[in-house]
Each structure stands twice: as structure tokens, then as C-alpha cells.
């Protein structure tokens, strides 16, 4: 190998090692000190590369949205998923979009207005520990690439449990490209520690989605997600999210 090729090879190897080390450092920092994604990075949420594996309709379609339900989007960010939720719940449904950063809520509000969906969504500027919602008022809560940004995830999940109706559903999804990524095993431990019952999982370590039930399944739970989840205690078949 010529000296020039050796130099190029060593440079590329060093660059790859530096990038890997930087990524590990960023992830370690986020894990040791969880914090919200800065709103200045909002364009990354809508990057075409992300949308290639994070199509809002496909992701949310696994969770069992039905018309006229009340949904919660915890950590709504730029409203990418909020708008699709609003379409799914229909004109008689409602989506509560929560974020701790006003610039994110402003982007969400603008997106909803442009799509003609603003009347279906209530925006809330608050954190995850004290949601401005009544007890047992939500049919489906969704947390996408957000749980790892919350310093006290158990407290946040406990608050989500408070606002969910008995038998309602919690959907948690994450992706490895998020610096605050948490594994599905970790998320399941946290959700079960908060009192949720595991319903099913789909995807891979790169990008996964999980369903949890608030208390035991009962007759008040209906809609596509029930048929989409194979629960260990039931004989329902899978149509999207696999129970394990």
C-alpha cells in the first residue's frame, strides 16, 4: 500500500473512531443527565432520512386510534405526529399535545393551522409530572422518542397512568438515532414498575413500538389495537404488534 493510501486509510479510521466516541459520549451524557431535545434541532425531527423509517401514519396505525377518542401526545415536539393523531381521532375527537418548550408548541400550532386541524388539538405548555388533565380522561397516550429525555420516567409514567381511563392504552416508541434512546427492555421495566401491563411489541432495536395496558383488559377497551396485540393472557391474534 502506498504512503498516500496508508494515510487515507488511517485518516478514515481515525475519523470513524472519533465519530463513534463522540456518539458514545453524547449518549452517556444524555443518560446521566436526561433533558429535552433542544427546540433548535426541530428540523431533524422532519428530516427525510428519519421519515423513511418514521412515517407518522404507519407508526400511529399500530396503536389503535379510532374516531372520537381522546388521545395524549406527550412530548409532541414539532407536531409531526400530533397532526396525524388529529386526523385519526376525527372532528369529534381530541388530542392533548404536551411539550415543555414553547417554540415546539408554536411549530405544532402552525402545522395544525395549515392542515386545518387546530380545533381538534389542545396544546399544553407543561412538563410530564403534572398534566393539566382530569383523572381517567384519556383513551390512548403516546410517547415517541421522549421517555429517555425525562429525568424521572417513573414519575412521568405514573402521571400518565393517572389520566388514562381504566383499560386504556399507552404506546411507547423509540429509535436508536435519538441521543436519548432507551432500549425496549428498559422501557418495559419502567412501564411495568409504574403499574402498566405489557401488551406487545413490534420493530427492532433500531426502531420499536410497544403497547401497554392500564390495569386489566376489560370490556371498555375496544378498537383496532385490541386486535393488534397478542396479550400473554389472551388468545387474540396479532395484526401488527406482537405480544411476547
Strand order of the largest sheet: 3-2-1-4-5-7-6
Structural class call reads alpha/beta
Question: What is the general shape?
Answer: globular
Number of strands: 7
* Element-by-element helix/strand order: HHHHEHEHEEHEHEEH
Tally of helical segments: 9
Overall pLDDT: 80
The CA-CA distance between the termini, in Å, is: 52 Å
Largest sheet: 7 strands, mixed
Low-confidence parts? 11-26, 217-239
Share in helix: 25-40%
What percent of residues are in strands?
15-25%
Rg over CA atoms, rounded to whole Å, is 19 Å
Quick overview of this protein structure:
The protein has helices at about 5-30, 40-45, 50, 55-60, 80-90, 100-115, 155-165, 185-195, 225-230, and strands at about 70-75, 95-100, 120-125, 140-145, 165-175, 195-205, 205-215. With about 240 residues, it is an alpha/beta fold.
Structural notes for this entry:
- The protein is an alpha/beta fold.
- The chain has nine helices and seven strands; from the N terminus they run ααααβαβαββαβαββα.
- It has helices at 3-32, 42-45, 48-51, 56-60, 80-89, 102-115, 153-163, 184-193, 224-228; strands at residues 70-74, 94-99, 121-125, 138-144, 164-175, 196-203, 207-214.
- Strands 3-2-1-4-5-7-6 form a seven-stranded mixed beta sheet, with helices on both faces.
- The longest helix is centred in the first third of the chain and has 30 residues, at 3-32.
- The radius of gyration is 19 Å and the shape is globular.
- Mean pLDDT is 80; it is low at 11-26 and 217-239.
Amino acid at each position: 500500500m502506498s504512503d498516500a493510501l496508508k494515510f487515507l486509510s488511517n485518516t478514515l479510521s481515525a475519523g470513524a473512531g472519533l465519530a463513534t466516541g463522540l456518539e458514545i459520549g453524547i449518549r452517556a451524557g444524555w443518560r446521566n443527565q436526561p433533558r429535552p431535545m433542544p427546540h433548535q434541532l426541530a428540523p431533524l425531527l422532519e428530516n427525510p432520512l428519519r421519515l423513511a423509517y418514521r412515517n407518522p401514519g404507519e407508526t400511529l396505525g399500530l396503536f389503535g386510534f379510532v374516531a372520537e377518542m381522546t388521545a395524549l401526545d406527550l412530548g409532541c415536539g414539532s407536531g409531526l405526529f400530533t397532526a396525524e393523531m388529529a386526523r385519526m381521532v376525527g372532528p369529534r375527537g381530541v388530542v392533548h399535545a404536551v411539550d415543555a418548550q414553547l417554540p415546539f408548541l408554536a411549530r405544532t400550532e402552525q402545522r395544525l393551522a395549515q392542515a386545518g386541524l387546530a380545533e381538534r388539538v389542545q396544546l399544553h405548555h407543561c412538563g410530564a409530572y403534572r398534566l393539566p388533565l382530569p383523572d381517567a380522561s384519556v383513551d390512548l397516550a403516546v410517547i415517541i422518542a421522549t421517555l429517555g429525555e425525562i429525568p424521572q420516567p417513573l414519575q412521568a409514567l405514573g402521571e400518565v397512568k393517572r389520566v388514562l381511563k381504566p383499560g386504556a392504552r399507552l404506546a411507547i416508541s423509540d429509535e436508536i438515532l435519538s441521543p436519548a434512546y432507551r432500549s425496549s427492555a428498559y422501557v418495559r421495566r419502567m412501564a411495568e414498575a409504574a403499574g402498566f401491563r405489557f401488551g406487545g411489541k413490534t420493530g427492532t432495536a433500531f426502531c420499536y413500538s410497544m403497547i401497554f395496558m392500564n390495569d386489566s383488559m376489560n370490556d371498555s377497551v375496544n378498537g383496532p389495537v385490541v386486535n393488534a396485540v397478542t396479550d400473554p393472557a389472551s388468545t387474540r391474534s396479532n395484526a401488527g404488534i406482537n405480544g411476547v
